[in-house]
Amino acid sequence: MTSYTSDLMRLLDERGYIHQATDAKGLDALAAKQIVPGYIGFDPTAPSLHIGSLVQIMMLRRLQQAGHKPIVVMGGGTGKIGDPSFRDESRKLMNDATIAENVAGIFTVFDRLLTFGTGPTDAVMVNNDEWLGELGYLEMLRDVGPHFTVNRMLTFDSVKQRLEREQALTFLEFNYMILQAYDFVELARRYDCRLQMGGSDQWGNIVNGLELGRRMEGRELFGLTTPLLTTADGSKMGKTASGAVWLNEAQLPAYDFWQYWRNVDDRDVGRFLRLFTDLALDEIARLEALEGSEINAAKIVLANAVTALVRGPEAAAVAEATASATFAGGGLGEDLPVLRLGADGMRIGAALTELGFTASNGEAKRKLAEGAVKLDGVTMDDVGHLLTLPPGAEARLSLGKKKHAIIRG
């Protein structure tokens, strides 16, 4: 680890957040002598972010914990275009009502993890449509356009990959990097923002922004990126066979969220505890040193800590109790997903797919044939088996050791 003098850079370094920095020594010196407002942008393309964004949210939390000011930028303006970075195709354009609804949903997680207010280190959430929506096209071309060359814009990976694959990159999307760079300039003007942070895929956009700030405003700005977050098996963080792991309860029940962390690879436990919890580093070192079946205790600590931060302490407690009742006591647990059968019942293969345990009836058939499906502990192998229960009666449907649901008549 590099030797830093500021609490901010020491905290980010020792917990594993730093991948690239435009001027680490300069940022360290600045953070040691004054409050540094820093921002990260989030596109409101859905009513919830997923855990792929959680490392960025935690980075803003670390910024505040170290005595600095987090600025959460919702891309209400840029969201009308869509970030082309590393995407194979264009995003669907959103209207103002959808963007506003998504921003409201996303705010709930930030409100748990950051302290908002009007104080010098209190977090603020802003929507870049406030300034981008007011920009006249000719004024934008005149004031910002001269600082960008098409030659350089064509060298960015986000553009090159689309062109190399001969997939359309619209002129609208091509403007995204200019607008994001202008965000940094406007935030510097409005909030004296000196730092932009983001994932490693945002490096080019961040550099664009600080260069534009220097040219237009003569400001010294800084950029910092986190490592590309993958799990120990090389898969992308936040992606599972059944879909994204959403941060909001409306998109993913707390029990499923808790289970994701409970079931992480043994090799990821220490790293995830440093990135996604506030546990002391010496306690994390003790937990990640556990071996064999004892590492499961560390995973429960991880699941409880992350769920408590994102969903609240009560959600974490209920999820752990449900897991305990399901796995240890063989009970149903009160927070498992519930599938109501209706008067006509449902085929067991269709039930597995309806619950999201399998992606298709074909996969359900394979899992049944493998003996991976149990109904109240009894192995089932007939894809056509009709699940029926009297009104109010319950049974437990399981796929493997990790997926469980309540079937209710």
UniProtKB/TrEMBL annotation:
InterPro entries: aa-tRNA-synth_Ic (IPR002305), Rossmann-like_a/b/a_fold (IPR014729), S4_RNA-bd_sf (IPR036986), Tyr-tRNA-ligase (IPR002307), Tyr-tRNA-ligase_bac-type (IPR024088), Tyr-tRNA-ligase_bac_1 (IPR024107). Keywords: Aminoacyl-tRNA synthetase, ATP-binding, Cytoplasm, Ligase, Nucleotide-binding, Protein biosynthesis, RNA-binding. ATP binds at residue 239. It comes from the Bacteria. One of its GO terms (molecular function) is tyrosine-tRNA ligase activity. It holds the Pfam family tRNA-synt_1b. It catalyses: tRNA(Tyr) + L-tyrosine + ATP = L-tyrosyl-tRNA(Tyr) + AMP + diphosphate + H(+). A motif ('KMSKS' region) lies at residues 236-240. Belongs to the class-I aminoacyl-tRNA synthetase family. TyrS type 1 subfamily. This is Tyrosine--tRNA ligase. It comes from Qipengyuania benthica. The gene is tyrS.
